[in-house]
Give the backbone structure.
Amino acid sequence: MKQAKKPKKHKLSQIGKVSANARTTDTHVAASELLIPPRKVAKLLPASKKHYQTVLMGRRSIQDIMDKKERRLFVVVGPCSIHDPKAAWEYANRLKRVAALVKPTIQVVMRVYFEKPRTTTGWKGLINDPRMDDSFRIEEGILTARRLLLKFNELGLPCATEALDPVIPQYIADLISWSAIGARTTESQTHRELASGLSMPVGLKNATDGGTQIAINGIQSARSSHHFLGLSPDGRSAVIRTTGNPYAHIVLRGGAKPNFDPESIRACE
């Protein structure tokens, strides 16, 4: 009768042997490119006193409305996203005429959204893909976005956008009077911290299912101070310390059904 073979012993050096060419980082990264720093963009496309007058007027009007110092409404109006600079400029000129007519009762803020949050995949907006051909010339998109914001503010139209990528506000936030945090990102700690440091009023949207608690939690977080990693104006990694945004508020954007009726608003309050 043959004896059973003893299990083969492996030397520790043979277990989990790793190739000398093995990598543990960037295994799914095809390429990376250095991006122009925010400070350099601001020098290339500087804002004037007139631009900042429009920005600050818009911010102060919204704050006064929220504080009930004004009885007007503020209305954020415009296309779902900006994809054609020429069409956006034509729209802005028409909106400016309407804004002048309704000014006694409504503060108009133009919706100038450059980033598109996607549930799965799709076009991610003018900044990410300005030529809409999957070439992703992001630096070109940033410069195009800032040029447009300068033109709109020169016209006297306060601008609104959605803060999606946490890096982008360093390039354009000085020209924004109102920002939104989208329904897909309101629960994100990164975006709540971002909102806490933005210089304009920020609306956090309710969840895609219509629930408001996520946005209410987001408001509490955005109104608090935070410490987090971010980008400096010189394009370097930095620790950002914020004081909190006192004008964080909820946006009732619907869900399974609309939620801007009086009953839904009372329930939210």
